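C-alpha cells as discussed.
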C-alpha cells in the first residue's frame, strides 16, 4: 500500500544518429532546430544537431522523440557551480 510513489526511469535510445527516444523527461526547457534542452530525471540534457524537430511529446509519460542530424548529447551537472552557469549562459545567448 505504501508503494504508490512511481519512480520514473531515464533512458535514451538512438537509432542511426537520426532518431532519438528519451524517457524520464520532466520538462522541455527550450528547443529549436539546432538544440533541445530537457530536464530529465537525471539532470539537464542538451541535445545539439542540425534540422532537429520533435516527433513525439508525451508529458504524462515523460517521453520525447527527436529526429534530425544529432551531433551530441551533454548532461549539464549542477554541482559544477560556476562552470555550469557559464554553460547555461552560452545556451541562452
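Sequence:
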Amino acid at each position: 500500500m505504501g508503494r504508490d510513489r512511481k519512480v520514473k526511469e531515464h533512458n535514451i535510445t538512438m537509432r542511426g544518429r537520426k532518431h532519438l527516444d528519451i524517457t524520464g523527461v520532466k520538462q522541455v526547457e527550450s528547443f529549436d532546430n539546432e538544440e533541445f534542452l530537457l530536464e530529465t530525471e537525471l539532470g539537464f540534457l542538451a541535445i545539439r544537431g542540425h534540422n532537429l524537430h520533435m516527433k513525439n511529446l508525451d508529458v504524462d509519460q515523460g517521453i520525447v522523440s527527436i529526429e534530425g542530424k544529432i551531433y551530441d548529447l551533454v548532461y549539464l551537472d549542477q554541482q559544477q557551480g560556476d562552470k555550469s552557469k557559464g554553460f547555461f549562459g552560452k545556451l541562452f545567448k
